[in-house]
Amino acid sequence: MADVFLYDTTLRDGNQDRKISLSLGDKLQAAKLLDSFGFDYIEGGWPNPSNPIDVEFFKHIGEMHLTHAKVTAFGSTRRPNILPEDDPLLKALVASQAPVKTIFGKSWDLHVTDVIRTTLEENLDMIESSVRYLKENSESVIYDAEHFFDGYKANPQYALDTLKSAELGGADFIVLCDTNGGTMPWELAQIIQAVKEKVSTPLGIHAHNDSGMAVANSLIAVQNGITMVQGVLNGYGERCGNANLTTICADLVLKLKKDPFCAKNLQDLRKVSLAYDQIVNIPSNVNAPYVGDAAFAHKGGAHIDGVMKVSRSFEHVDPQLVGNKRVFVASDQAGGSLVVEKVKELLHVDVDKKDPKIRELLLLIKKRENDGWHFDSAEASFEMLVYRTLGHFTTPFSLENYRLIEDRTMQGVSVSQATVKLHINDEISLQVAEGDGPVNALDAALRKALTPYFPYMKNVRLDDFKVRVLGSNVGSDAHVRVWSTFGDETDTWHVAGVSSNIIEASWFALIDGLTYKIYKEQKNGH
Ligand SMILES: CC(=O)SCCNC(=O)CCNC(=O)[C@H](O)C(C)(C)COP(=O)(O)OP(=O)(O)OC[C@H]1O[C@@H](n2cnc3c(N)ncnc32)[C@H](O)[C@@H]1OP(=O)(O)O
Ligand SMILES: CC(=O)C(=O)O
After folding, report:
1. Ligand 2: which of 177, 180, 238 to mutate, judged by most atoms within 8 Å of the beta carbon?
2. Atom 16, ligand 1: residue with shortest CA distance
3. Range of the domain at 463
4. DSSP codes joined into one string, 340-373
């Protein structure tokens, strides 16, 4: 039996993030993902006529046969001075037919008098009568005590009275919300203890991250006996975001030794996190705890050395537990250990860190990193450097020269023409090609020269090409880094080139991109 329930509000509170606007299709796809991971509750949205997507969501979600999660519909307590059954928003919640309803109500006297502008007594009745009405029309009701911690600090007795009203109405869970996200963990722990003396309904936590404490507050709440944690996948949400359920999930299992239902799927955590970013089309946070690309990426030479000797010397958990992997970053901060590791990985041979060839390779890597190559995102250029320096591969052609002509007609049409002269297999190949720009023309001439000798070259695509100015000198004499992605029928690879001459930087990248294909084919015996 699970000892803590994870309540996911990615589709409701997460959708209040300014970067996100979920379509119906996005919501349904995400609901499937959240269910497959094993979250206990999925808050689908606030179904009411102003939110047609959410109304539609609840019409469709029943047909999706979720395997574990209970779907909840979100709303607020009734408006002042009407009966719950006459409140259009509560009626819309019932019409959603979601098995669980979650409503928020006011805990902070300031909000009662100045925001919803009613009396303190009427607010207590709004809470109790709304919970009771929904309870009569649902499997269970969760009461979110909005601004509970701020309310408690302002008027503890009244804040507690609001919780008692929810309890009287029959709430199955009372969730204490740090809506403004400003509560510190030590305050939160004290307030929870005070609540537990007065309320016997199971408690939950809903924390926002405005002071960077959302995950810490959620965990402290669990340590203080709370059994439901609300949060959002990858921490999306309004302002600074909601408590990051991805991080919380791993922390609960690996640090607090809790056993939520999804614990058995922890090794899918990274996959789920990336899949949701894919749905919302937002680049994943590389530094995200546990799941980010950099979460187990070691860059400092001394760190790499340590991890290679004893992994836990610089890793707080085994990356595989959350579906992530260890990465050694090739950089100017690397030491001999990294080179040894990379060479072993690439060539499957044992090498000695003190071998002069390895030292030479390390110096070259450091020089290029200092020049701005950034091999961590140009793995094929890194590999080419290793193969060439250690004599494992010799580029089967060499450049005699290249020449570029830029031609712009009176009609405003511009054409670039490239001439490339290569030595290949003791022969000379001189080729001319035109292109939309100088790089396109160079690429075409190079392929024209290489294809008769390496016919598979015609299957190589240039998928992406980016130029970035390096350092603080952004004038026309600045150093630039060209980064490109190449691909063929089976693989994709990334290369870089750096120079103060944009054409030369592009040339380096083109050469690495095409030569990598030759290396790949030779390795496969072609
Ligand atoms: C802490 C949270 O994240 S709560 C969730 C916030 N999310 C959203 O607001 C997104 C969905 N919201 C909506 O679709 C709309 O705001 C609606 C349909 C709910 C309401 O729309 P409108 O009727 O046009 O009101 P509007 O949004 O301008 O103002 C909110 C109203 O809700 C009232 N209200 C706010 N909280 C509560 C509450 N707990 N109980 C009862 N009424 C409340 C306010 O007093 C205000 O009423 P008023 O119009 O009489 O002044
Ligand atoms: C309920 C909710 O989303 C909040 O109080 O932040």
Report:
1. 177
2. 50
3. 455-526
4. HHHHHHHH-----TT-HHHHHHHHHHHHHHHHT-
Q: Which of 422, 452, 482 is the last residue of a domain?
A: 452
> Would the pLDDT of 476 be above 80?
no
Cβ neighbours of residue 68 closer than 8 Å, sequence gap 6 or more = 35, 38, 39, 40, 261
Closest approach atom of ligand 1 to CA 144: 1
Share of the chain above pLDDT 70, in %: 98
Q: Which atom of ligand 2 is nearest to the CA of 179?
A: 6
pLDDT averaged over every residue in the chain: 94
How many domains are there within the chain?
A: 4
Look at residue 344 in the predicted model and tell me its pLDDT: 87
CA–CA gap between residue 346 and residue 366 (Å, rounded): 19
Direct distance between the N- and C-terminal alpha carbons of the chain, in angstroms, rounded to an integer: 57
Ligand 1, pocket residues at CB < 6 Å: 13, 46, 48, 50-51, 76-77, 79, 104-106, 115-116, 146, 179
In 144-174, which positions are buried (b, 16+ CB within 10 angstroms) versus exposed (e)? bbbbbbbbbeebeebbbbbbbbbbebbbbbb
Pick the ligand that lies closest to the CA of residue 149.
Answer: 2
Same domain membership, residue 77 and residue 17: yes
Tokens of 396: 């089967």
Nearest CA to ligand 1 atom 20: 50
What token pair was written down for 142? 């969760």
Are both 151 and 198 inside the same structural domain? Answer: yes
